[in-house]
Amino acid sequence: MELADKTILLGLTGGIACYKVAELTRLLIKAGATVQVAMTEAATQFITPVTMQALSGRPVFTSQWDARIANNMPHIDLSREADLIVIAPASTDFLAKLAHGQCDDLLSTLCVARDCPLVAAPAMNRQMWANPATQRNVAQLRADGITLLGPDSGDQACGEIGDGRMLEPEALLEAIIAFFQPKLLAGRHVTITAGPTFEPIDPVRGLTNLSSGKMGFAMARAAAAAGASVHLIAGPTALPTPYGVLRSDVQTAQQMYEAALASAAGADLFIAVAAVADWRVAQVHVSKIKKQDGHDVPHLDFVQNPDILAAVAQRPQAPFCVGFAAESDNLEAHGEQKRRKKGVPLLIGNLGPATFGRDDNEVILFDAHGHTRLPRADKQMLANTLIREIAQRLDAAPRQA
Ligand code: CTP
């Protein structure tokens, strides 16, 4: 319920992407928002007000002469109730109107009359997006403090391929949630490792662990929402990339080590959430190891993988380093011990079996002042809290020489 207590004025303008906004409405409501829909005349050609009313649970407004508002001033009342106006899809024509402050229908008028922020998700053909007039309008909108979400690139409804697709509803939801987060990490570069690693034995077998990557991805999402530029280095997981995050996929601990050291060299903050395999097979078999009836089972030799977190923490001018510890028992004792061993200012401890694969988690923070227990919470909420805790310590920490 990351949007509990928030009222979103969702404005639809004419474009085929209107069909995606039905789903966006559901996602916003699920996240706890109150959604008030307003539509242009053109938008009603693509999706009906009936659909949008049924999904939002509130009457939809399309006309500035709508007498359902007692004082007959829907452009004032609707914009005053909103914490944020979201225009999705935002057509070429509507961006042009916004850039020039034109108001010739309810939606454009309430945008000009607003006293809250406005974000717009452009959706149009690639040539319309690339048109110099559109780009001029976009530059003006940015200069006016309007945030543009997207557009995305890819297949377009018209059959062409290029820039101009509206962001998918899930990405828009993330961007809207992020919009409300305090920008505690603005200007910071953050490197995060997440997920399990996979150590091959032969071309079809390998060693891995039960980490789902959810906590690391939630940390990446929270850091990006807090304004950081985030590089997420992920082991094998099918999770979608959080909005606005740069992702590199790796498989083995050695690959994660190389990617993390290169990325962390320019970072202010390094958060190691990955469950890195401690050992790898010394000799990976080139061909599949065959079963041989009546013979011994294969014998595997292991070598230890590099400790990524400790290596980053030991670098000159190391970023502020945060570790996660997955223990199976006695978390309080092991957590502080591990923090010291890794040489990091903050370590977040959790019990592996009680968190792997789950959507919630319970952690203890270990730092030089002792330890603090945080209550069990949904992983995303917990990640938001952890990013606040980390940002405070990062602001207070001198950069290491
Ligand atoms: N870590 C790492 N590289 C490794 C092993 C661990 O960067 N090769 C990081 C993890 O991402 C985590 C922290 O170190 O932030 C602690 O990981 P954990 O698996 O709990 O501890 P280990 O160092 O592997 O110690 P042990 O398995 O003995 O508990």
Automatic annotation (TrEMBL):
A cellular component annotation (GO) from this entry: phosphopantothenoylcysteine decarboxylase complex
The Flavoprotein domain is annotated at: 6-178
Q: Where is this region: Phosphopantothenate--cysteine ligase?
A: 190-401
Supply the name of the protein: Coenzyme A biosynthesis bifunctional protein CoaBC
Q: Which source organism does the UniProt entry give?
A: Pandoraea thiooxydans
One annotated GO molecular function is: metal ion binding
Supply one GO BP term: coenzyme A biosynthetic process
Binding residues for CTP, per the UniProt record? 278, 288, 306-309, 324, 338, 342
Pathway assignment reads: Cofactor biosynthesis; coenzyme A biosynthesis; CoA from (R)-pantothenate: step 2/5; Cofactor biosynthesis; coenzyme A biosynthesis; CoA from (R)-pantothenate: step 3/5
